[in-house]
Specification:
The chain has 690 residues and is mostly helical. 74% of the residues lie in helices and 0% in strands. It has a domain at 612-690: Serine Threonine Protein Phosphatase 5, Tetratricopeptide repeat (Alpha Horseshoe). It comes from Cinnamomum micranthum f. kanehirae. PPR repeats lie at residues 37-67, 68-102, 170-204, 408-442, 509-543.
């Protein structure tokens, strides 16, 4: 038999993955007895592995009368390569126990890859000891595998020690350790390493950019500019990362510049760049541009087999921007084109149902999710839980939640925020305590939701416990949490604690300034509210409509008519904001309480909105305080004609009559209320000493 021809035939079977031909050769080798030769057996095993028949390769391995280190290494590498690290490590352990063949550097590298996949640091450390005992630490490729194992297992101290022990680290060594620091958010250490590389390559730059992009930091954009100035050419991996950062930070100008660069340069578009551009425009609220790009990319022939990622991006972008009709239209077109619905599409449809608080539509989508087999998907399950909770079906939300195979922080946050939104505040707080007890990774969003629940309960003790947890866990510096703490303390009547939180904040955006202004106004400290408003303007922070509503409410509580008028005028004159109905309502209430009825009526008739019951109700309520029966009757009649079933109108007018001693009129109105059964008994409660 021509051994050379057999070897050549096996190589061709491996190259073209011709498993049937390989099986024929296998039969021939068994009959001829040549398979006893370890060289041919190894080649046949490699043929099965390359053709995707790993179980057959393992069976052949077990039948081999003789095995060498290549045999063991080939099968261990195969199991690591296909993501079956347990089998790879079992084989490696068996090899060591038999002591027939000593593992070489290739075997050890394959075993280290399996340790990294399985996060098995103990076996990895034993391999590390073996490397040191065998004096293999001068093999840079092997040491890079060891370094990668420690990085993947999250042990950066050991990874740094390995890196320091490599006599001549190459670019792979540097990039692996940098990637490790980036994955843990330790960007200072990562950049320090990056700056020490003699000649960083494209992968080095991209690794640091990815690290900053995951932290959603503008440093990713700045590093890309440095990369361009250094003459390093971008690749398809660079742009999606930077565009992601532009989207999160709403750097629309920079995003558009990158888009122009892509058009002018010779870089070939792919579906990932296209998806990143669509996502960037969507996050910057430029949905029309995102849609235009999407329909343009649909016509690209090179995207014909990879359009799923584009569909995911545009549908998700429309849903996030609450373009509910557009989202549903896109999903309908997607489904009618014959493409299969996936977890991303279902997630977007459910977000539309949440936006619309449409439980009926949500339950129909839930049925479709079960039909398509996605009911056990953790992402879809988390959004379903949030849907039921925010639509008020708390029992269904809890049942879904406890059935989830994996309850991650997203699922907990959706359930807790839904409970808080629906007023099930005690349940929200109880769930948060259980989440902490189970050691689930709490984030700033779930803490913000539970603080909202404490605010609604006026539960100071619970709020202080959450605050203590934030300090202990290092979340106190998060702006979203500080703002929620200020809101909680102000609603619980402890504005001084809220002021203390505000004064210790490193970064203050418009939301936290608004929070402290509203809090001061709510607690009767109008002067401080106005002072904070002025300080906000001096710091160059742009106020929004809610900020103005907060400071005007503070003026209303203190009866500061002159100050309120000045702030109200500046809203449109100095800041280009159009006063909404709530701002007019606040001003009317202020003027009415001050007895300026003519000015209040003039403002009502001059405003560009149709006055609603709230505005007329404010005017009517002030008539009681100032005993203005004529105006009170006129306003009450107008309100009764608009809302004949509103008991508060009858009660307020009755109080006007009573305050003027017109008891007959007051009694008649009370009789009307009793006959029609308009007024229900009210109730309220507060927390006292927990």
């Amino acid at each position: 038999m021509d051994f050379v021809s057999v070897a050549r035939s096996l190589r061709r079977c491996r190259r073209f993955r011709a498993s049937n031909c390989g099986k024929s050769i296998h039969s021939h080798l068994v009959k001829s007895g040549i398979l006893r030769d370890v060289f041919f057996a190894n080649n046949l095993m490699a043929m099965y592995i390359d053709s995707g028949f790993l179980d057959e390769a393992h069976q052949l391995f077990g039948e081999m009368p003789e095995r060498n280190v290549v045999s063991w290494t080939t099968l261990i590498s195969a199991y690591s390569h296909v993501g079956r690290p347990s089998e790879a490590l079992r084989l490696f352990t068996w090899m060591l126990e038999l002591k027939l063949e000593m593992p070489n550097s290739f075997t050890l590298s394959a075993a280290l890859k399996a340790c990294a996949l399985a996060k098995n640091i103990e076996v990895g450390k034993s391999i590390h000891r073996h490397i040191c005992g065998a004096q293999l630490q001068y093999d840079t490729v092997l040491m890079n595998s060891l370094l990668d194992m420690y990085v993947k297992c999250g042990s950066l101290c050991n990874a740094q020690d390995v890196f320091d022990s490599i006599p001549l680290p190459n670019l792979t060594s540097w990039n692996t350790l940098i990637a490790g620091y980036c994955s843990k958010g330790l960007m200072e250490e990562a950049v320090n390493l990056f700056q020490q590389i003699p000649e960083p390559d494209l992968i080095s730059w991209n690794t640091v950019i990815v690290g900053y992009a995951h932290m959603e930091s503008q440093e990713a954009v700045e590093l890309m500019c440095m990369m361009h100035r250094a003459g390093v050419k971008f690749d398809h991996f660079t742009f999606p990362c930077v565009l992601k950062t532009c989207g999160f930070l709403r750097f629309i100008t920079m995003g558009e510049q990158i888009h122009c660069y892509l058009i002018k340069s010779s870089i070939e578009f792919n579906q990932f760049i296209g998806s990143a551009l669509i996502d960037m425009y969507s996050k910057c609220s430029q949905v029309s541009k995102a849609m235009k790009l999407f329909y343009e990319y649909l016509g690209y022939e090179e995207f014909i087999h990879d359009k799923m990622v584009l569909w995911n991006s545009i549908i998700s972008g429309c849903a996030s921007n609450k373009y509910n009709s557009a989202t549903l239209a896109l999903v309908s077109r997607f489904h009618s084109s014959g493409m299969l619905l996936n977890s991303y599409i279902f997630g977007s449809i459910l977000k539309v149902c949440i936006n619309l608080l449409n439980l009926r539509c949500g339950t129909q989508v839930h049925g479709l999710i079960i039909t398509c087999g996605y009911h056990l998907d953790s992402v879809v399950g988390s959004i379903l839980t949030e849907l039921y909770a925010k639509c008020g079906s708390i029992e269904d939300a809890l049942q879904l939640f406890w059935r989830l195979p994996e309850k991650d922080v997203v699922a907990w946050t959706g359930l807790i925020s839904g409970c808080a939104q629906q007023g099930s505040n005690l349940l929200a707080f109880s769930l948060f305590r259980e989440m902490v007890y189970l050691n689930v990774g709490v984030d700033q969003f779930v803490i913000s939701s539970v603080l909202k629940a404490c605010s609604s309960l006026a539960g100071l003790e619970g709020g202080k416990q959450v605050h203590a947890y934030c300090v202990k866990s290092g979340y106190e510096s998060e702006t979203i949490i500080d703002t929620s703490l200020i809101d909680m303390y102000s609603k619980c009547g402890e504005i001084d604690d809220g002021l203390a939180v505000f004064k210790h904040m490193d970064v203050r955006d418009a939301i936290c300034w608004t929070g402290i202004i509203v809090g001061c106004g709510r607690n009767g400290r109008a002067k401080e509210a106005i002072e904070f408003f002025q300080a906000m303007l001096e710091k160059g922070v742009k106020p929004n409509e809610i900020t103005f509503l907060g400071v005007l409410s503070a003026c209303r509580h203190a009866g500061l008519v002159g100050e309120a008028f000045g702030i109200f005028r500046s809203m449109s004159v100095d800041h280009g904001l159009v006063p909404r109905l709530e701002h007019y309502c606040c001003m009317v209430d202020l003027l009415s309480q001050a007895g300026c009825f003519e000015e209040a009526e003039r403002l009502i008739f001059d405003m560009p909105y149709e006055p609603d019951e709230t505005i007329w109700g404010s005017l009517l309520g002030a008539c009681v305080s100032h005993n203005d029966v004529e105006l009170g009757k006129r306003v009450a009649e107008l309100l009764i004609s608009k809302s004949p079933d509103d008991a508060s109108v009858y009660v307020t007018l009755s109080n006007v009559y009573a305050s003027l001693g017109m008891w007959d009129c007051s009694t008649k109105l009370r009789e009307v209320i009793r006959k029609v059964c308009l007024k229900e008994a009210g109730r309220s409660w507060i927390e006292v000493k927990s």
